[in-house]
Amino acid sequence: MPKENHDLPGALRHYRVLMESGDFFEAHEVLEEAWHPLRRERDPRRNLAKGLINAAIAFEHLRRDRPKSRRVALRAMGAYDRYQGLCVEGILLFDEFHACCETVERIRGEWRI
Predict the structure, then answer these.
(1) The CATH number of the domain where 92 resides is what?
(2) How far apart are CA 56 and CA 40, in angstroms?
(3) Which of 1, 18, 32, 113 is most exposed by smallest CB count within 10 Å?
(4) pTM: predicted TM-score of the whole model, two decimal places
């Protein structure tokens, strides 16, 4: 059974607040710091967190509106899409992950990506 990462619950809540305020780069930073210890564990939350990190980066690229931003954002959202299905009841921190995924989907609808 995966160990609980005590930084992860707070990071997920902070990620969501930052995403809702449009601070996508900082959301990426906050969650990436909490993801770092998970990256070498055999824990499905590792990839789910990675997908959320990629979603934040996708929105940041769109916000910056540089040449090729949309293409880069679509590629980053592809990583989110690959891992979103790991957000299933029964995983540790399901409620926090689920709330983050709902936030990503809402923002995704606004950006039409």
Answers:
(1) 1.10.3450
(2) 22
(3) 1
(4) 0.92
Residues in the chain: 113
Cα-based distances in Å from 60 to 1, 45, 50:
34, 23, 15
Which amino acid, residue 89? E
CB atoms within 10 A of CB 84: 18
Does residue 103 belong to any structural domain of this protein? yes
2 assigned to some structural domain: no
DSSP state of 38: G
Name the residue range of residue 71's domain: 8-111
Structure token digits, residue 75: 């590629």
Number of structural domains (the chain) is: 1
